[in-house]
Amino acid sequence: MLVGTGSDVGKSILSTALCRIFLQDGYHPAPFKAQNMALNSYATPDGLEIGRAQAVQAEACRLAPESDMNPLLLKPNSEHTTQVVLNGKPVGNRSAYDFFRRERHEELRQAVNAAYDRLAARFNPIVLEGAGSVTELNLRDTDLVNLAMARHADADVLLVADIDRGGVFAACYGSIMLQSDEDRRRIRGIIINKFRGDIRLFSRGREMIEELCNVPVLGVVPMFHDIAIDAEDSVVLEQKHRQMIRGRTNVAVVLLRHISNFTDFSALERDERVNLYYTREADDLRNADIVILPGTKATLDDLCALRRDGLAQAIIDAHRDGKTIVGICGGFQMLGLTVNDPDGIEGGIESLPGLGLLPIHTTMTAEKVTRQVKFQFGGAQCQGYEIHQGRSDNAEPIVRHDRCIGTYIHGFLDNAPVRDYLLHATPTHSEVPSLQAFKEEQYDRLAEHIRKHIDMERLYRILSEER
Question: pTM higher than 0.70, yes or no?
Answer without folding.
Answer: yes
